[in-house]
Every structure is written in C-alpha cells, then in structure tokens.
Design brief:
Layout: E1 3-10, E2 15-17, H1 27-37, E3 41-45, H2 46-51, E4 63-67, H3 71-74, E5 83-85, H4 88-97, E6 106-109, H5 113-119, E7 125-131, E8 139-140, E9 148-156, E10 159-166
Parallel strand pairs: 1-6, 1-7, 3-4, 3-6, 4-5
Antiparallel strand pairs: 2-8, 7-10, 9-10
The chain binds NADP nicotinamide-adenine-dinucleotide phosphate.
Length: about 170
C-alpha cells in the first residue's frame, strides 16, 4: 500500500509560486526534493508539469503522473512513460489500494496549489521547506496545521526542513 506525501516549499506568507514559476532559488531544497522523490512516483498538476525546465521534464528516475481535465488531448503530447489522469482522487485511491502499479512505495504530491488543495486530505505526511523570507506570489499552500502535527524539524539559516504527520 502506497504512502502519500506532499512536498512543498513555501514562504512566510504561504506563497509557493508566481507567474507559473517559483519566486526564489534554494539549491538545498532542490537537492532534498530530488533525493526524497527519486525512485518513487510524483503526481502534479498540468501547470506544474509545464513549469518544469525542459531539461528536467519529465523528472528523471521517477514515474511522472500529470493531472489534467483533458487527458485525451494531453496524452499524445507527453514523452513516453509519463502517465496522465483526469481523476486525481481515483488515481490516489488506486495507488493506496494497490490496484495501480506505481514506482517505489511513495506517491509524492508535488503541486501546485490546485493539486495540493485537492489531494492534501489524502496525504499522510507533508515534507515542508519553510522559508523565512517573503515574496510576491499568486499561488499559495493551503492551511494544514489543524490536521497535521510537526514531527521533525531541521533548521538552517533562512529556512527549515519540516516533516508534518497527520494527527
Ligand atoms: N513551491 C513549491 O513547492 C511548488 C511546487 C509545485 C508548484 N509550484 C508552483 O505552483 C504554481 C502552479 O500551481 P497551480 O495551482 O496554478 O497549478 P497546478 O496545480 O500545477 O495545475 C493546475 C491544473 O491541474 C489540472 N487540474 C486541477 N484540478 C483538477 C481536477 N479536479 N481534475 C483534473 N485536473 C485537474 C488542470 O489542468 P488542465 O488545465 O490541463 O485541465 C489545472 O489547470 C506555479 O507557480 C508553480 O511554480 C510551487
């Protein structure tokens, strides 16, 4: 049975994105993202897939699953191996009950805002990079603190890596 974990970097004002991209550069976060998610399955909204640099699209060494309302239209445009789903709830249920083959044991929900809002209720944990800075943004991470508890934290200058577990 797959574990479902959201992974996100947000700033002091819950900003996660701006103009289709991420409004900061934090190499430590990118390295952690890559090391945690490699070998597993990543699920993302179509806009986040589009925002990935061509060089990292699809994300290597991971099963990439893109959520879109128009799967039939998108499927032929995607590289071989990238899966598409128009039904994110069903996709996660199938991963959890073992009826869908995935890579690794963890389904990583990697954004963006729409996907986090949809799938956070089904996530077991959140790997959060909490930035101490503030940025202009148009995409935000939803409130989760009532449903999850902080289980682990590593502090660094300007940011921290936090693991939150469902209460
Ligand atoms: N800081 C971080 O950790 C982080 C992580 C990821 C992304 N981001 C940022 O987040 C922003 C993108 O977030 P976003 O909310 O605009 O877009 P998104 O969640 O990446 O993608 C939205 C798209 O997902 C599809 N979708 C949404 N709900 C659906 C449903 N119920 N059924 C089927 N398909 C559905 C639709 O695709 P179609 O339009 O194709 O139908 C929709 O346009 C960017 O700025 C990105 O850089 C930040």
């Amino acid at each position: 049975m797959a574990k479902v974990v959201a992974i996100v970097a947000m700033d002091q004002g819950r900003v996660i994105g701006m103009d289709g991209g991420i409004p900061w550069r934090l190499p430590e976060d990118l390295r952690r993202f890559s090391s945690l998610t490699s070998g597993h399955t990543v699920v993302m909204g179509r806009k986040t897939y589009d925002s990935l640099p061509t060089k990292y699209r699809p994300l290597p060494n991971r099963l990439n699953v893109v959520i879109t309302r128009d799967a039939e239209k998108l499927r032929p445009k995607l590289p071989e191996g990238v899966q598409v789903s128009a039904n994110p709830d069903e996709f996660l249920q199938q991963c959890k009950n073992g009826s869908r083959e995935i890579q690794g044991e963890i389904v990583w929900v990697i954004g963006g805002e729409e996907l986090y809002r949809l799938l956070l209720p089904q996530c077991d944990e959140i790997e959060l990079t909490q930035l101490e800075s503030s940025h202009d943004g148009d995409a935000f991470f939803p409130s989760f603190e009532d449903e999850f508890v902080l289980a682990d934290e590593e502090k660094y200058p300007g940011f921290s890596f936090q693991r939150w577990q469902r209460r």
